[in-house]
Each structure stands twice: as structure tokens, then as C-alpha cells.
Amino acid sequence: MTTTPPPPTPAPVHGPGAPGAAQAAFHPGGYHTGVSLLGGWLPLTIEIVTVVALIAVVGWRTGRWRVVWVPVSVVIGVLGALLARWYMDSQGLASDPAPAALWVWTGVAAAAVAVAALGWRGTRWWRRGLSVLAIPLSLASVLLVLNQWVGYYPTVQAAWGAVTAGPLPDQVDASALPGLRGTTMSTGKVVSVDIPDTASGFNHRTEYVYLPPAWFAGKTPPKLPVIMMIAGEFNTPADWMRSGNVIPVIDGYAQSHGGQAPILVFVDAGGSFNNDTECVDGPRGNSAGHLTEDVRPYVISHFGASSAAANWGIVGWSMGGTCAVDLTVMHPDLFSSFEDIAGDLGPTAGTKAQTIDRLYGGNPAQWAKFDPTTVMQAHGRYTGVSGWFEDTGTPNRPGMWKGAKGKNFSGFHRPTQQNSAPNGFGGQDNTRDTDESGAAEKLCAAATKDAISCSVHTAPGGHTWQFASAAFPAALPWMAAQLHTPGTAPVASTPAAAATTAAVTAPKPAPAPEPR
């Protein structure tokens, strides 16, 4: 018996010229047009007005005010910032270190509350009113810096649409779909769906399905491929459309391919905004069961999608990236391709001991069941499974990045995390995540040992929605080809020039046609 050796372990693909490089934070249309919340005049104006208001509130007043109560307010502000930082570290709420401005404005907000309370008596009416106004202004400044850090709402329009539950791009009511059958569409349509949780019992929010123009052609829906879209830990099912801006991207792809594109299903992996399930089954809910046993059969039965694993893929960002790898290697009979955008080595909710306790109710066997490296080792050789890893990186030293037209873009490493919390807090264990030992490289190396074709891509950027929104269109042509989307030519995950530095295999053979 002869065996085919697995592909070689891939090296990272670096730089703006590599596939997956996050060269553009925004795409035309959608919620990424309008007044920016990530920079420009509005955030700066709010911060300036806040500072001016606080200066006017503090004022000169009396000697006792200046000597006693102003310093007390400053101390309260410092303690408030330290408490907020301790809480974030203890809960492991962030992969990247928070900007110093976040703690500064958190301290300012706490100090503003102290100034208003301590200086209320014996103060003129206008100063009382201004002290009350300074509190929401300082809180708004905190939220602005927080949003600039994670890139959650790029514009005022995006934030307003989310707060008011405004319509999504291309959104129509599901009742309108029959009337659109047999028509020529210039864009796809998004519909909300309430998927029964019969199999999983997972309490989830409204989810969404994008149907490309090709879905509406003909008397019956074609059996199109499907991409499951999973967001990060703090999320709503609509985040990929509002913050990730994927609708203009997938519409553009469909328009350039005769209306053909995969169906996208925007799932709820958390059940609530801050429920970190990591897409596993456990005390926080049967998230994995919902995605595999509720969502997938529903999309097949209600929208006529293909049921073949070769036509199903997963794209995930942050926590969702971890989910994408995990669900694919655990269920190669359901999914065949994944894009992991800045995910972890495996489902994580702290240290390993904390993760076992929080995600699996203290059951180590469940940890092993959902750990992707362990799963791949136990499974052995895979057939027809492929992956695309996208991760953040920065040049090792100034001057290495020459821009989009330069050729010298070597020497990438991941931003160093400055962990101030003790071991056990938020999963801190003094383990540095470097380019040599990063999650993407480790997972891809493990995957290639079991014949999963994969490649690793790094690009400059932080752990933000802007990075995710650029990573999705970079990998979309590859993903569409891997899922055998009609009208899509085979696409390698790396350019020809980089073929020797990454493991690349041809797209999987097309599955046998399904009976219609």
C-alpha cells in the first residue's frame, strides 16, 4: 500500500501584496459611509467639548475646594481607571492591550462623577447643570475610544442602525421572496429568520440569510453553496453586515460572476451580546449543536441549499475564527472549508483550568472533544478539507514596510501583549504569542499533518472589525472556488510567486450532482 505524504508545513505569507492582506479598511456602500466614529472631526469635537466642560465645572472656587476636593476627585478618577483595567484583565475581555487613552478617559469619567457629587452644595445653578452634562460627555468619550480600539461602529449611521434596529443592506421581508422568484436581480437580498432550536435547545436571537441574485433565477432555487458567518465574542448576528460590511462585498462578487455567489447565513453563536460560548456545548448553551443541528438543516430545507459538505464553509472572526476551525475539523461530514480570522488556538475562556470550568462545567473530556488540535490528531487523515488563516502582524522595525508599491515587507511579528494581570486572570499564563508559536501557524502545521490543505496570511492591523472586513474579501474568491460556486474558476490560496512558502493544493473535486 502506498500513502501520499501530507503537504509540507506552510510558512506565513506576509505583506500587503499577499492574499489576505488587509489593504483597505472600508468598502464602498453599506454602513461604512457617513460621519466617521473612528476618526475625523466628530470624536475630536466631543473630546474637546468634554475637556472644556470639565475645566469650567472644576473652576477656581474656594481654597478648600482646590486643596481638598479636587485632589479627592482625582484620586477617585485614578481608582476608577485602575478598577476598570483590573476587571478587563481578570475577565480576559481583550486579546490585544487596550490603548492608554481608554484608561485616561475612564478615569476622567469617574472624576467627573466625583466632581459633580462633591461640588454640588453651594454651587451656582449653571455649574451644577454643566457638571451633570460633563458626565455623559465623558462617558461618550470613553465609548468613542473603546469603539476606535475595536472598530465596532465605523460611522454614526452604523451605530444608529444598530441601536434602532434599522434595516440592513439589501434587507427585505421573507414574505417578499416568492414574488421575486424568476426575476433578474442586480443585488442579493437579506432576510431575517427565526430558526427553531428543536435539536439544540439553544436560546438564540434572530439570524439572517443572504440570497445571491442567482437564487432568484428559475422556478426553483438552485442548490447553491453556503458560507456560515460567525462573529466575535461580543456580537449580534448582524455584526458582519453592519461592522464587517460584507454585503457590498458579496454583491460585488455576484455581479462579477453572473449573479452567482454562495448563500451567506449570519448565525447567533452566543445567544446574547456577551455570552462567550466559543461555539461549544456546555453550561453557556449548546452553541455547536445549534449551528450544526438547527441552522444547517434549516438553510437546506428552507432555501434549497446544497447539503453536501463540499459546498459548505465557515468564515469566523476572533472567537468566530476559533469556531470556524473547530466546527470544520469536528464535522468534516458537514463542512469542508474555513477562514479563521485572528482566532485562538482553541476554545478559550481563561487558562486551561478556567476554560474547562467555564465552558465545560469542569469536564476535561469535553475540553478534549472540542480542542481542534486534539480532534485532528484523533481523526487522522482528512479528505477534501481546506483552510485559510488570516492574522494580524506588524513590521519588526521601522522602515521595513515600504507600502503597497514596495517589495520589502518581511520580518512580521504579532504585536506584543503587555499583560499586567497575574497568572490565572483572564487566562494570563505568561505565554507570549509570537510569529513562531502563534495560533494560526500551530493550527495550520497540525492540520497539514492530517492532510488538511491550509495557508497562513498576515497583514498589518489590530484586532478590529476593520481588519476582519478586509480579510473577508481577500479570501472570498478562494472560498467560493473551494465550495464549487457555479461560474467560479479555481483559485489558489497563495500567488504563484509564493507557492514555495505555503501549502497549497488544488480545489477539491466537485461533488456528484444532487437530485433536484
Automatic annotation (TrEMBL):
Biased segments, Pro residues type: 1-13
Chain intervals for the UniProt region annotation (Disordered): 1-20, 417-438, 487-516
Keywords: Hydrolase, Membrane, Transmembrane, Transmembrane helix
Domain of life: Bacteria
Gene3D superfamilies named in the record: alpha/beta hydrolase
Keyword Protease: no
TM region positions: 41-60, 67-88, 100-120, 132-150
UniProt keyword annotation of Iron-sulfur present: no
Sample GO molecular function, one term: acyltransferase activity, transferring groups other than amino-acyl groups
Bias-annotated ranges (Low complexity): 487-507
SUPFAM superfamilies: alpha/beta-Hydrolases
Name the record gives this protein: Alpha/beta hydrolase-fold protein
Organism: Speluncibacter jeojiensis
